């Protein structure tokens, strides 16, 4: 009986020949990521000091201030200051701030590599699965153990195999693919399981699109959302000067899956997740005409270069509707600079969009775009929970960047295909 990608990565990390779903293994961690919101705060800093222990490997720890940057008030500024000073005092050279959401920064800077075990104090750490890594979010207490020992235990997850074959129609993006998948599996349907995304549709996707898919694995309850690394992964890394130090894995032909789902890309149309659950998914035509007040394109899910490029194609030469706010937050400074250089930000701005700093702020209502009572927002982010982006008396719809752009033009939810 063969092994899945996840089983192979965990077996290697645990120093055993074979791993099977349900086993408990102690795995060595290749990278540990902390952000400012759940990172080296009192829970970790004081306890680490009280244990009188050193960090097991400072080169394998990455700290990124992203949720509270730029700070909106003194409390947020204090947290970022603490995070910065703690990292310096503990010799963490891999510290970043004011450059964008942690997950994009991890990928851009080569901290997320194929075949590695990565943990982070943010639930969307699963995004690195798009690089072929076993990556998952952990709590502060678990992270404390990792900082001290460099190890963590896992129950080897069962794997759901999701196969997408064919070519996506015009106006349909990776966000539609993952929302459709989440709608079918359910918000808890993959709890503590790995979701392995394969098929010709996935193989033909650029890395920006793959990252969007793996990012949202946790919205199914999944431990990881993994995509086999391939020549596109290699090319993406090589462009960043990384040509070795990682290993490709693929599932064996006789690997055991707890479930397999098959989809045809040509049959997919633009979809939207309706309030207040990510799995409350329907075709966008079923809610077309719903009036919106804010449209948001950004975050570690929907703010990469390709996302802004495709949105700009919809908005080019057009204006957003009167009374609608269109906010754009590039996923990183690198993305911001590339989009500025190529004129994408100008097109978005000329359409009436407001360009924000690369940050997590608006995604979870911390700053830079919180919504008021009674307002409706359509967003390319990853969650639409009650009160996620501001008032608990507001509503959030999740959609692809092109669908968000189309809604901004009409002032109501709309099918983006008419603009392409």
From TrEMBL:
Record field: catalytic activity: (2R,3S)-3-isopropylmalate = (2S)-2-isopropylmalate
Stored Pfam families: Aconitase
What species is given as this protein's source?
Fusibacter paucivorans
Under the heading NCBIfam families, the entry gives: hacA_fam (TIGR01343), IPMI_arch (TIGR02086), PRK00402.1 (NF001614)
Instruction: Quote the pathway field.
Output: Amino-acid biosynthesis; L-leucine biosynthesis; L-leucine from 3-methyl-2-oxobutanoate: step 2/4
Q: What is its EC number?
A: 4.2.1.33
Name any cofactors this protein relies on: [4Fe-4S] cluster
Quote the record's cofactor note: Binds 1 [4Fe-4S] cluster per subunit.
Q: What is this protein called?
A: 3-isopropylmalate dehydratase large subunit
Tell me the protein family, please: Belongs to the aconitase/IPM isomerase family. LeuC type 2 subfamily.
InterPro entries documented for this protein: Acnase/IPM_dHydase_lsu_aba_1/3 (IPR015931), Acoase/IPM_deHydtase_lsu_aba (IPR001030), Aconitase_4Fe-4S_BS (IPR018136), Aconitase_4Fe-4S_dom (IPR036008), HAcnase/IPMdehydase_lsu_prok (IPR011826), Homoacnase/IPMdehydase_lsu (IPR006251), IPM_dehydratase_rel_enz (IPR050067)
